[in-house]
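A sample copied in:

***
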Amino acid sequence: MMKKLKIFLFSDALGYELAQRYRFMQDELPVRLPVRTQLGYSSTAVPTILSGEPPTVHGHFSFFCRTGVTPFRFFKYLHPFLRPRFVFDNHRVRHKLSRLIAKWKKYTGYFNLYRVPYDRLPYFDYCEKKDIYAPGALAPAPNIRDMLGASGVRYHISDWRRGDDENIRKALASIARKEYEFYFIYTGQLDGILHFHVHEPEVVEEAFAALAKQVGKLLETAHQHAEDVAFYLMSDHGMTPRTGVADLRPVLEGAPFRFGRDFLACYDSTMLRLWVLNPEARTPLMERVAGAPGHWLSEDEKKAFNIDFSDNSYGDEIFLLDPGVQLAPSDMGAKAIPGMHGYSPDDPDSTAALLAERPPPFDPVTIADFFRLMRREAEDLRGPGA
């Protein structure tokens, strides 16, 4: 029997509002805390959790950015040959092409071209070239592997590339063998389900029931093999049901201004990010979009949201859509889907969650605090009575 066991189960998109509405594991995990998310997608929320630092420190926001270099220069010459478009814009073809490029460039992180037009890729860089769980991957910020490696605890971190069932199964077997004393277990299946079925209560209930079964087995196994178990179920954000759709590309792009000459733009699912190349175009371009359901972020808002990058690598200006409104078509997908995240952290449906059997040493306020909680629990393993 182990003395102490710390388990952090990460469930992508397990929002506080949904957990409360469906009474997810209310009896088994009675400690239920709403935690403020980080503006952005999992591409920024997860690095924030893994490092405890804001995007302006760990450097990750949306996938496509401007840094003065690009790994996509070859598309300048290749894109005319990627015809017919309906074939090469197919998501399966793009997925296979993404895998080939990642292998060629030796990228270890999550890499996806999504639906960024091939002729526009040479204008951009990509932020997640490295596996964000690898040692030193979020430098200058230490990440979870750096922290745990320095702590001296015996730890296990799931492989984010593997499925939920495999990650849970490996963790259960390892706990039974008493191999490690600290576990970070990654699960991402709920995110995929909620994106397409957040409006369907029966499907959500079924997804929660499946997750509850996995969590229950983890709790049972942990208590069988350790005297003192600290178990935390945490998430990066929630899921906001779709309430509307906005197509900003034809609004923004029109004579006399040209993409690549006067401006550049990334059309994410919940925000438009604009780089101004011609100063005279700034005001007219911003005025064109101003009537859409959303608003241009002020400099104070960027600072409050921790996205005031000094080099404007993620946009000179950012237009954030109102919660529930999706940009479609976008560089992320051709059509709007039932649920999305990436809205203002003030949106209740975007709020992340921390669920536990017993109160944590302190109450996390933002998802960055999850890193401090993990560090505190790792330190406890090396403290008195460990």
In short: The radius of gyration is 22 Å.
